[in-house]
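dumping these here so i dont lose them again. two proteins, back to back, each one seq then structure tokens. dont judge the mess
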Amino acid sequence: MVNPAEPVIGGLLVELCFAFMLYGITTLQTFMYFQKCSKDGLPLKATVATVWILESVHTGFCMQFIYDYLVVGFGDYLGLISINWGIGITILSSAGIALCVQGYYTWRVWIVSEKSLRWTVVIGFFVLLRVALGIASAVLSYIYPNWIVAMQMTVSGGLGSAALVDILVALTLTYYLKRGKHVWHEKSNNMINNILLYAVHTGALTGTASLLCVILFALEKSSLVFLGLVMIQAKLYANSFLGSLNARSHIRRKGTLDTGYSTSSNSVFHAAPPRIPVVRLVFIVLFAVEVFQHTDVMDDRDNPSDDSSYKLKTLKGPALV
């Protein structure tokens, strides 16, 4: 005889195990961030700390509700159609994570689009809509603690908005970077390709998770497998956000090599002068997760009396000093 609980909650258990592993990666990335990025501003550090705290709360209550379903409610098959009280807290923490991460991505769109209100307002609207529907889902889970009644009105809209935001962010960043690429210094294109790669991968990963959640919610009405993907989605948001911040040093080193900067024993940089306006470069570099903002010239530290006319400080422009 087939256990009636298996098709309902079996997939959810497996997905939560994977989500717990992603939380471990989130914690590691948070530790790495505070070790490597001590020069970041207080607002960004506070955002990272907030995301990790919300992730910890999210993970803790994921453990709580799966324990209640499988251990406390062992043998109570009808209890599986009821919404555990801890699920509402996981939905609220997930909405908070989405607000932090997608708000940060919206800011990147604002920078790279040269403060275009059109795209920023559109993306910001869907970010707030996704958060509002998440809060509504949490509230309804306590008013109508039943999967069939509470989730029908808000889950599809909230997850659909999340997927739309991810796709819009990736497409907008790709458009503005591609549009300006042909006028840049030829040796800067490798850097831009790396930025595009991170932008597209970020949107593709989280957007795919959101679409899968919507599809599974629509097709698997008798299973909670969609809920496991909702929990994984929150971990993917946190990891994509922290990964983009921690990748700055890698992009910086790779960009320095690809753009042809080299040093000699007397700290002279051999490079062609930039051919692009400094102001436009500032916008793009700010978008690139501030990959050049904290660059230090180690050779200049070793020989502070050098009078070289080609210093990285000069090439970066006064706005980045």
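---- next one ----
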Amino acid sequence: MSLLIQNLRRTLISRRALSASSGPRAPKCTTTGRLFHAQRISCAANTSAAPPPNDETSFEDDGELFSPDAEKTRSPSLPPSPAKPGGELRTRRFEESFGFLSTHIGRKPSAEDSLQARSSTWLYLFDLATQPEQLKRVSSKFSQFVDGGRVFPEGHALAFTRRCAELRCPQLALAVFSDRPTYRLDLTPAAARHLMYALHEQRPLSDVIALATLYRLYKLPPLSADPVSCALLISACLREATASGSEPASTIATALLPGFKDLLSRTELMPTPQSATENNSLKERLWMERAALNILEVLSSRGDDTKWIEDWCTRNGYTPSEGAP
């Protein structure tokens, strides 16, 4: 299995591994049972990508962004958003907030006052950003925040990933999480699944595999225990094999399917969100639906046994006409 992964990465990507001297060394790929081991990679963020036309995603202004005392904890969820500012106002607010943040974090903040940027400032900047380049500038300050003795609340990784996906630059999030010694923002299970879906939809298979290697590095639940992530990975491999005839991609998908079949046998139903506050759970259910139906379609076209996944999709109410999120 290790040889298959290496061959696929050699075929699909031409990027060099980052030096491991500044961070923990990642083990090499091993067996399918462990799926993928962590591997440090270099992912150059394409900051020229443009957001969707008329993109007016929300930003939140939760009141005071800066306080004399550093905020110790922060809810992972984003607060409701007020009316959005116009383009020039939004840009001005971004630059002002980014300027304040830059001078009020780190071991020795350069600002003359004693104020510290609150954790909510990051969320504010994520939502104010309308271009990948702005998000890249914000991410360049992550390590200074940690150097100053601060800790990112868990929800910030998801918020950053979500905004990268909205601005169609998930490769930036991948680059950040692939270089922990530089950025110091930890990948979380929710952020990993969101990024896996964004890469599945917007990027080549090589990026999906690159993300899969990070699960072990960040000590996340293995892909073999995460039905959403596992389904998205297999779906991406099957799609690549169908589109390009890639034998390594097809072989890896085939090797992963038995474990995925066993995982589904232990996952009777996907959780159904009960309220609007569980929006991310709803998204994950839809991502699972899309991936599972894609797997079913490919396996059916190949003449493989599909009863196991067809029955599981039926139990969850998944139908081909409702597969797109």
